[in-house]
């Protein structure tokens, strides 16, 4: 049942090229020329704002989607953790589409946020893994994320399938709003078609990551940094690590480092930097130098170009394949998950059933 793996979590991490491929088969035509996604009349050209609501890892998927929707579709996005949403009684701008993200489709706060939004949002859309769940049934439109059953408490393949589903939705929105033309759409969909292969390539770093994780597991605190669309990955990497290894971990946008968290940096505190070579990479290099100047150990997860530019002084490198910028948050989920997994195994925790946590949080 674990497909030869010791834990469901590792099975689910390893399955990602396959399940992400399933998402693409469901939503992108084989020639990458068209999107097959029935939104039951939701037209992004008639939407002025998105309100994304979710908890935990699903929230971080929504946070990546915010960067994407704003950048590619020029669509403003509000995002909330579900437990903060309805009690605040947020006002809805006209023509707001509410998007609710939940693997289980049963998370109490997300369901309550959906119910609160009914009649206030123009339409409600759910991204769910369980098609017969409450959230899927109650939303105006439900989009399955096609991850298949996720057993481990720590969410892995649901996250990358949520992101892949969002990615297709972003392309659809960008096209409907005239931000990209047909050729631009085909280009983005073709990029997406490369994801399963890139993820397999990322999985091949497993041994290197395991070696790094065994050292990280000796620490008490771990910092994760990312900029722009990689910032939510820093949050996700920290959440994954704390959930299953019980190490204290915090994710920050790289630029926030000197506004507080740098006080934590010393020789004993590893800093994991998730930083593909992108337009913001120079700024990230200077953030890493600030960490290294204080004796901090930097674990750089980056492509070869970023690795070259980072120079000496980096404690460990995990090299990721080159990938189109759009896909990087999905790809970099893999090393973040593997790092948490191997740190937990090194610590001997109950990886699939970590203490104090439930797979589905059906009470407030
Ligand atoms: O089923 P949901 O996606 O609504 O669950 C949301 C969170 O409870 C969930 O992502 C949680 O944070 C995971 N344990 C993260 O690994």
UniProtKB/TrEMBL annotation:
Keyword Disulfide bond assigned: no
Catalytic activity field: D-fructose 6-phosphate + L-glutamine = D-glucosamine 6-phosphate + L-glutamate
GO MF: transaminase activity
Its EC number(s): 2.6.1.16
Active-site residues annotated for this sequence: 359
Keywords assigned: Aminotransferase, Cytoplasm, Glutamine amidotransferase, Repeat, Transferase
Residue ranges occupied by any SIS domain in the UniProt entry: 40-179, 212-354
Subcellular location, record wording: Cytoplasm
Record's function text: Catalyzes the first step in hexosamine metabolism, converting fructose-6P into glucosamine-6P using glutamine as a nitrogen source.
Known partners and oligomeric status: Homodimer.
Protein name: Glutamine--fructose-6-phosphate aminotransferase [isomerizing]
């Amino acid at each position: 049942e674990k497909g030869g793996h010791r834990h469901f979590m590792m099975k689910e991490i390893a399955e990602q090229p396959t399940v992400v491929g399933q998402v693409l088969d469901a939503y992108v035509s084989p020639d990458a020329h068209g999107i097959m996604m029935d939104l039951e009349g939701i037209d992004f050209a008639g939407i002025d704002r998105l309100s994304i609501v979710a908890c935990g890892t699903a929230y971080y998927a929504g946070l990546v989607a915010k960067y994407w929707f704003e950048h590619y579709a020029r669509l403003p996005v509000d995002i909330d953790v579900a437990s903060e949403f309805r009690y605040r009684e947020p006002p809805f701008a006209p023509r707001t589409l509410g998007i609710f993200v939940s693997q289980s489709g049963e998370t109490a706060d997300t369901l309550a946020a959906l119910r609160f939004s009914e009649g206030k949002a123009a339409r409600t859309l759910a991204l769910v893994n369980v098609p017969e769940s409450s959230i899927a049934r109650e939303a105006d439109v439900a989009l399955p994320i096609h991850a298949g059953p996720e057993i481990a408490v720590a969410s892995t393949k649901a996250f990358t399938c949520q992101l892949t589903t969002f990615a297709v939705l972003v392309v659809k929105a960008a096209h409907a709003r005239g931000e990209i033309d047909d050729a631009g759409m085909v280009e983005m969909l073709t990029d997406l078609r490369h994801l399963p292969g890139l993820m397999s390539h990322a999985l091949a770093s497993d041994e290197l990551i395991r070696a790094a994780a065994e050292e990280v597991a000796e620490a008490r605190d771990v910092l994760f940094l990312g900029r722009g669309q990689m910032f939510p990955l820093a949050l996700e990497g920290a959440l994954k690590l704390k959930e299953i290894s019980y190490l204290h971990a915090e994710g920050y946008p790289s630029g926030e480092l000197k506004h507080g968290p740098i006080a934590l940096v010393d020789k004993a505190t590893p800093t994991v930097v998730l930083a593909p070579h992108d337009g913001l990479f120079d700024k990230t290099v200077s953030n890493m130098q600030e960490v290294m100047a204080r004796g901090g150990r930097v674990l750089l997860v980056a492509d070869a170009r970023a690795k070259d530019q980072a120079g000496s002084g980096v404690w460990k490198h995990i090299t990721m394949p080159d990938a189109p910028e759009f896909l990087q948050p999905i790809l970099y989920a893999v090393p973040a998950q593997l790092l948490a997994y191997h740190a937990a195994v090194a610590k001997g925790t109950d990886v699939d059933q970590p203490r104090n946590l439930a797979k589905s949080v059906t009470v407030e």
